[in-house]
Structures are given as structure tokens and as C-alpha cells.
Amino acid sequence: MEKVHKEYSDLAELLKVLAHPVRLCIVRGLIMKGECNVSYMQSCLDAPQSTVSQHLQKLKSAGIIEGRREGLEIYYQVCNEKAFDIVNILFNNSNINEVD
């Protein structure tokens, strides 16, 4: 029973992290684009760099995204298959356009 409880807790935590409009937008954008850097996300979201970075840190801490350094930039991509599937299901029949 404890193993089942842990699986439900892990999934609930994943949903909690995704349940913010900015983080949902970031993950969807990364799924659609493949990967991108903070500067690109900042211009798409029209949000301060510090705000975007805070959301990226939460996504990274939850194991939803990972970063790849290229010079001074870090390029992020989705690395969590469950998060990838959840976001795709949410937007499957959506009229919401791509961010950029």
C-alpha cells in the first residue's frame, strides 16, 4: 500500500508544479520548440528574467526539465515523459496557439 501511496504522491507533486500558467506555458513551449534559452522564453512570455528563472528552477527541481550549457547560455528541454504526455493531452484539442 505504501508504494501505491508514493506513486500517487509523486504524480500529485508533478501536477502541482505544472499547475501554474507560466510553468505550463514554458513546458508547452519547450515541447513545441524542442529546446530554448531563458532569453527566448523571457521575450515570449513578456516576463522579467528573474521570474522566468524562478519558474525554470521549480521545473528543474521537479525533474520536468533539464538544461544544457552552451557558452553563457543554458538551453532547456523537457526530460520528464509523464509531464510531456500530460501537457500534450491538455492541449490536444485546444485552440490556444503557440507562444512565439
UniProtKB/TrEMBL annotation:
PROSITE patterns linked to this entry: HTH_ARSR_2 (PS50987)
Highest taxon of source: Bacteria
GO molecular function: DNA binding; DNA-binding transcription factor activity
Keywords, ordered alphabetically: DNA-binding, Transcription, Transcription regulation
Entries under Pfam families matching the protein: HTH_20
Alphabetical list of CDD domains matching this protein: HTH_ARSR
Domain HTH arsR-type: 1-98
The name this protein goes by in its record: Winged helix-turn-helix transcriptional regulator
Species assigned in the record: Mobilitalea sibirica
